[in-house]
TrEMBL record:
Catalytic residue positions: T181
Residues passing through the membrane, by range: none
Keyword terms of this UniProt record: Acyltransferase, Amino-acid biosynthesis, Arginine biosynthesis, Autocatalytic cleavage, Cytoplasm, Multifunctional enzyme, Transferase
Site label Cleavage, positions: A180, T181
Enzyme Commission number(s) from the entry: 2.3.1.35, 2.3.1.1
Protein name, entry field: Arginine biosynthesis bifunctional protein ArgJ
HAMAP family: ArgJ
Species lineage: Bacteria, Bacillati, Actinomycetota, Actinomycetes, Streptosporangiales
Site (Involved in the stabilization of negative charge on the oxyanion by the formation of the oxyanion hole): T109, G110
Gene (name only): argJ
Species the sequence originates in: Actinomadura sediminis
Binding residue positions for substrate: T147, K170, T181, E261, N380, T385
Length: 385
């Protein structure tokens, strides 16, 4: 049921005619309350799409009645006219719901630098409003936000006391989120204020979605929104809710990872023995973005020298002659030099784990990435055509 698993939410996914494929391309998620508390995290890219700029302002009020999302066009780098298109979209949703546009968040995904066909999008909003449901609406909405995703991505969990968290996400390329990942809507029927939702969302995304770094490219459109209806009447403890929310975000992160454009390997980079968690994340990201290593893993070559080279480009605390590296459990590097026989490393499975011990402290972090394939290059060399 995705975003409609919690009580108080309806959703829809329709064909508005934004995609040449004729597939669903517009989604609407509505919070029927009684609460409309909400929080959001957005891309840190300084080049922000119009929907991000609009939704950032909406979320400052801590209340969201509805989220409208479209695929088939990013509405990024479209100037004042593009922002007006976002405003008009929110106004159309508000009119359908008999409410104010100030509580309507807008999300878009697709090609940068082109105006959206508003003559198709606005009637699509009307169609989505007419099809809102709790039954099939959640899955239809998750399908409508896909671009190069091969499958819809959904997750839900039930917490103690009967409340639920449901979610949908999209993202297959430009995965280096900086506090979000492509587009993601999370719903809950717990009764929590916006301030609590904000803290929980930042904590959950900080160790999950924010550490997915498939290609080092931060989108102009990334947004993760968390909406609470309060319909279950449950008021969970903040730490309990955050833990469950983190489970949902971790599930979505895994789904995004394995569906990343062209990827044949899902790589977990575990950095341990760091002087700080920030050091561990910095080292993990450096390894995740090393194209030589990503090529090596695609070719099933356990080239640990490329791992050390990536570590060495950071300002993390470590001594080069104390570094240790394991690939799929084989410690191929010990003390900054060769370790166990690299021929023992089996890189045939899809899942690959690279463990780096900095031998500098008690902290750790995991960053997830993928290999670099010819399929990824092909898909992105022809993306706009």
């Amino acid at each position: 049921m995705s975003v409609t698993a919690p009580q108080g939410f309806r959703a829809a996914g329709v064909v508005a005619g934004l995609k040449d494929s004729g597939n669903r391309d517009l989604a609407l998620v509505v919070n029927d309350g009684p609460s409309r508390a909400a929080a959001g995290v957005f891309t840190r890219n300084r080049v922000k799409a119009a929907p991000v700029l609009w939704s950032e302002q909406v979320l400052k009020g801590g209340r969201v009645h509805a989220v409208v999302l479209n695929s088939g066009g990013a509405n990024a780098c479209t100037g004042p006219a593009g922002f007006q298109d976002t405003h008009a979209t929110a106004e159309r949703v508000a009119a359908a719901l008999g409410d104010s546009a100030g509580e309507v968040a807008v999300c878009s995904t697709g090609l940068i630098g082109e105006r959206l066909p508003m003559d198709a999008l606005l009637p699509g909003v009307d169609a989505a409003a007419a099809e809102l449901s709790r039954g099939d609406g959640g899955l239809a909405a998750a399908d409508a936000i896909r671009t190069t995703d091969t499958v819809a991505k959904i997750s839900f969990r039930q917490g103690a006391g009967g409340y639920m968290i449901g979610a949908m996400a999209k993202g297959a390329g430009m995965l280096a989120p900086s506090l979000a990942t492509m587009l993601c809507v999370i719903t809950t029927d717990a009764d929590l204020p916006a301030e609590t939702l904000d803290r929980a969302l930042r904590a959950a995304t900080g160790v999950t979605l924010d550490r997915l770094d498939a290609d080092g490219c931060t989108s102009t459109n990334d947004a993760v929104l968390l909406l609470a209806s309060g319909a279950a009447g449950a008021v969970p403890a903040e730490d309990e809710f955050t833990a469950l929310l983190t489970e949902v975000c971790a599930d979505l992160t895994r789904q995004l990872l394995v569906d990343a454009e062209g990827a044949s390997k899902a790589i977990a980079i575990e950095v341990v023995g760091a002087a700080s968690e920030d050091d561990a994340v910095v080292v993990g990201r450096s390894i995740a973005r090393n194209n030589l290593l990503k090529c090596a893993i695609h070719g099933e070559d356990p080239n640990w020298g490329r791992v050390l080279s990536a570590v060495g480009t950071t300002d993390a605390v470590f001594e080069p002659d104390q570094l240790n590296v394991a690939i799929n459990g084989v410690w191929v590097c010990r003390g900054g030099s060769f370790g166990d026989d690299r021929d023992k490393v089996d890189l045939r499975p899809r899942d690959v784990t690279i463990t780096v011990d900095l031998a500098a402290g008690p902290h750790s972090a995991t960053v997830w990435t993928t290999d670099l394939t010819a399929d990824y290059v092909h898909e992105n060399s022809a993306y706009s055509t």
